[in-house]
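I have been asked to look over a protein record a colleague put together. What it holds is a sequence and that sequence's fold in token form. Please read both lines and tell me whether the tokens look consistent with the sequence. I do not need a full report, just your reasoning and any doubts. This is what I was given:
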Amino acid sequence: MYRIAAGQFKAKCLKVMEEVRKYHHEVIVTKHNKPMVRVLPVEITAEKHKSVFGCMKGKMVIVGDIIKPIGEVWTADEHNLR
């Protein structure tokens, strides 16, 4: 990932886009040193946002009994029980 000023991006847009596609990295385009947009290759974006379902598969471990009550009274929604 690297940053490029908006003026430089405008002048070298096609070259920068080709580098992003070829090397699979992202480029942050800045204006007055503030990030404005991010340029990403399509393949990376499509893989990252493929689906919400199953995206955390294999990344969590259940420890202990998740069904047994914890023994504490939760009062956050007590007003809804009246």
Summary: The chain has two helices and three strands.
